[in-house]
Amino acid sequence: MNRILSAALLAVVVLLGFGLRGVTFQQIFRGDAIVFPVGDSYYHLRRAEFTLERAPDMLLFDPLVNHPDGSWIPWPPLHTLLLADAGQALGGTKRDLELAGAWLPPTIGALTALPVFGAAAALAGSGIGVLAALLMALSPMAISYSDVGNADHHGTVAFFGAFWLWGALLAARANTTRSGRIAAQTLVAVGRLGVVFTWAGSLLYLFIADGAVIAVLALRGRVGALRAHALGLVATVLPIALAVPRLGPPVGGTYSTLSLSYLHGPALLALAVVGFGCSELARRRPERSVLTRVVQSAAVATLAGAALLTLPGLLPKLREGAGFVGKGEPWAARNAEQRPLFSPHGRKGWLRPLWYYGGFGYVIPLVPLAALLAARDPRRRDPALVLAVWTACFGSLAVAQLRFGSDFAPAAAVGFAISVDTLRRGLPGRRGRVVATLATLVGAGPIVLQHIGQARQEIAESRAAKPPGDPLLATPTGTLYRFAEEVRRLTPETGGYFDAGERPAYGILCPANVGHVLHYVAHRATPSDNFGPYSASRHWSAAQRFFEVRTEPRAAQIADALGARYVMTAEYGAVDYRSLTQRLHREDGLARIDSPRFEQFRLVTEGPRGGRPLSDIYGGAAAPGVAPYKLFERVAGAVLEVHAAAETPVEARLVLDTPFGRSFEYTASAIAGGDGIARLRVPYASQGTTPVASRGPWLIRVGDTTRPVAVSEEAVLHGDTVVVAAPGGSGG
Predict the structure, then answer these.
(1) Whole-angstrom distance, CA of residue 432 vs CA of residue 655
(2) Number of domains in the chain
(3) Are 651 and 718 in a shared domain?
(4) Among residues 117, 212, 124, 226, which one has the least CA distance to residue 181?
(5) Cα–Cα distance measured from residue 602 to residue 685, given in angstroms and rounded to the nearest whole number
(6) Do 716 and 602 meet the contact criterion of CB atoms below 8 Å apart?
(7) Within this chain, do residues 567 and 648 fall inside the same structural domain, yes or no?
(8) Is residue 230 in a domain?
(9) How far apart are CA 553 and CA 555, in angstroms?
């Protein structure tokens, strides 16, 4: 295929990739807001907004995270800086930043087709390169992490990973000139540094990607290529060594495996030592057998690894990293991104590969085999072997966890295209072309049908009559956005959003997966968030326990320890009948036969009315009549000191109306003691200022007599005593 035709086809592929990633824009641009998916997108926007406001400063320590202590941020800054720069280029306002957050991911995702083309063309020519680029543009897995509004970093990681793969395949080609090696190592360096400065878990990629290249070159006895790759590794150490001290203490410790840390430099040097060592062995005895090279390379790698393990405390950090990859800790085990590609539970579990990869999803384990078959050709043997190792490792990760599917997508596109090419070459003449064409149609056909269905759905939605009211409330994500705005309006302003040195006055306990939304939209601190245990596990664990405890005293103790004045609950579907989530979100903390009333958590607001709960996303069955979200305030509770004859039953009732359009009655009861006093602690004022408002005063019933009593907001907030005289007396 000539260059002009290749360039024209690539331009069409990039435009197609951008269009497919932007087709769902109606779900993001709703009403007066740009609504992003629940999760990390909001935190990248929070950091980027900080840079826009305080340029050239970066948000490295955030007092809104891990309240009340705050936390250093585990993410490297590159993706956030790209968002901030794009927002600045568009005008520098918050709206411009959000436009950048919406459209930068599709742009990066579409452009990833270019290095994918280069990688496939390095192995099989421009025709297969265009096919690989097209598969990358069409890939539902890649699109799911780089579509419009998905401001998370995964699409950026895949983009730089594709350059890394392209450079690695070029570097492995035989008979490469000196200038060709420099160009290849430049591509590798761009990809390697891009991944390192974008994703916290980049150490895994260093060992897989660079390990694959070194292993193949060592086994093939490629002296010059090994030296060039080792020199590239050494050169990469410098920018990393300069950057790490400027980014603050690495989250997880000096030699953390789960963030950009001081371990990256020694790890790169250890890989470089392996490369130099293997090149020297190959130079001295080039005639040695492959088996001998395997043993020698393994020995060099073992020595380098042993030297690396002398770093203090490294072994536990390696176990921690393995726990993340292997889902060996609670957050990973429950994270939706870390579900396996295949699931034996139900028909849909086995259809999941079809949804993310089309028909190609079922042959992921065979892609390394296709690359090995391609390696029979001496002219492309070494890059084919690198691709075999690369797809075997990243393909295994993608099968084990969906989150790695985005990072595997570029190699998958190259591997699928090479598999088709291997079929074509393996059969003579026309039959090979027919079989390869059929294989492409079987693999890509379901993907094309999926995109056609998505486009039809979006067109139908654009033509449908819009229901009256707030368009944000038509989606779970928009509903959450609106409630976060309400949280900001109803809670006191507090510091820390644009001043990393200012400690917020209070925090909001919330389910971890909505924490970043509260950070960005509500400007409020939370003890736990979407970082899980990787910002500070102590507070995250305590915050998780809060929603699982069964008694109010324990809940109040945890809230106080975390400096949490407010609690936000969400409707997810079925919950533990006795958990705090059940008692607060489903029952408002009211008394029931087997559980006492809550006295120190009052409902501030609930809603939004007409909105949709998060259970619509996660598949839970929402309880009828229960609001999507509720906001409670931790209060001291006013003490009603009711004077009555000893052993007389006393009851206090207050009817409350909520913005969700419902009413409930809070009831407190006690029996007067021998001193003639019954004490009832209540969390609601009869003259309150919250959206959940009382219909009138408290009604205190003593025996057969009822009297109204006013309870002020100050009494509820400060725990003041309100004296209620016996019937016929004065007070109240």
Answers:
(1) 78
(2) 2
(3) yes
(4) 226
(5) 10
(6) yes
(7) no
(8) no
(9) 5
- Residues with Cβ within 8 Å of 319's Cβ and at least 6 positions away in sequence, in order, are none
| Low-confidence stretches of the chain (pLDDT beneath 50) | 730-731
Q: What is residue 688's predicted lDDT score, i.e. its pLDDT?
A: 80
Q: How many CA atoms lie within 13 A of 94 on its CB side?
A: 10
Q: Are residues 495 and 563 in the same domain?
A: yes
CATH number at residue 674: 2.60.40.3390
Return the amino acid letter for 168.
A
Q: Which 3 state secondary structure label does DSSP give 190?
A: helix
Q: What is the pLDDT of residues 444-468, one digit of tens each?
A: 999 999 999 999 999 998 888 888 8
Whole-number Cα distances in Å, 470 to 160, 464, 474, 611: 39, 16, 8, 9
> Could you tell me if 499 and 612 lie in one domain?
yes
Residue owning tokens 């200038």? 179
pLDDT tens digits, residue range 85-131? Answer: 999 999 999 999 999 999 999 999 999 999 999 999 999 999 999 99
SS3 504: coil
Looking at the chain, the whole-number percentage of residues with pLDDT higher than 70 is 96
With H, G, I as helix, E, B as strand and everything else as coil, classify residue 669.
strand
List 509's β-bridge partners, or say none. Answer: 567
The reply to whether 499 and 550 lie within a common domain is yes
pTM of the full predicted structure? 0.92
Q: Does residue 620 sit in the same domain as residue 702? A: no
Q: Residue 34: which residues within 8 A CB-CB, separation 6 or more?
A: 28, 95, 98, 99, 101, 102, 149
Rg, C-alpha atoms of the chain: 30
State the pLDDT at residue 330: 60
Look up residue 109 and give its two tokens.
Answer: 């995702």
Query: Given phi > 0 = left and psi -120 to 50 = alpha, else beta, which region is 625?
Result: left
Q: Which amino acid is at 315?
A: L
Under 8 Å between Cβ of 272 and 296? no
Picking from 595, 615, 634, the residue at the C-terminal end of a domain is 634
Q: Write the CATH number for 574.
A: 3.40.50
- Tokens 């192995």 — which residue? 123
The answer to whether 371 touches 387, Cβ cutoff 8 Å, is yes
Render 626-652 in DSSP notation, one character per residue: --SEEEEEE---EEEEEE--TT-EEEE
Is residue 508 domain-resident? yes
Instruction: Say how many CA atoms lie within 13 Å of 143 toward its Cβ.
Output: 27
What are 30's strand-pairing partners? 33
**Secondary structure letter of residue 598 according to DSSP:** P
* Positive or negative torsion for Cα 357, 359, 361, 365: negative
**DSSP-derived secondary structure letter, 730:** -
Tokens matching residue 186:
């430049």
Output the CA–CA distances (angstroms, integers) from residue 621 to 552, 612, 690, in the order listed: 26, 12, 29
Question: Domain range spanning residue 562?
Answer: 472-634
Here the tokens at position 140 are 């539902």
Which pLDDT does position 350 carry in this prediction?
A: 78
Contact assessment for residue 606 and residue 659, using Cβ atoms and an 8 Å cutoff: yes
Select from 601, 634, 667 the last residue of a domain: 634
* Within-domain flag for 692: yes
pLDDT for res 291: 87
Q: Characterise 132 by phi-psi region: left (phi > 0), alpha (psi -120 to 50), beta (else).
A: alpha
Residue 149 falls inside a structural domain: no
Beta partners for residue 651, in sequence order: 669, 701
For residue 502, the one-letter residue type is E
650 shares a domain with 589? no
Which amino acid type is present at position 479? T
Residue 456: the pLDDT is: 93
Residues paired with residue 649 on neighbouring β-strands, in sequence order:
671
666 and 593 both lie in a single domain: no
Burial 348-358 (b: 16+ CB within 10 A, else e): eeeebbbbbbb
| Helix H or strand E encompassing 484 | helix 476-490
Contact 201, 156 (CB under 8 A): no
Q: Is the peptide bond before 608 cis (omega within 30 degrees of 0)?
A: yes
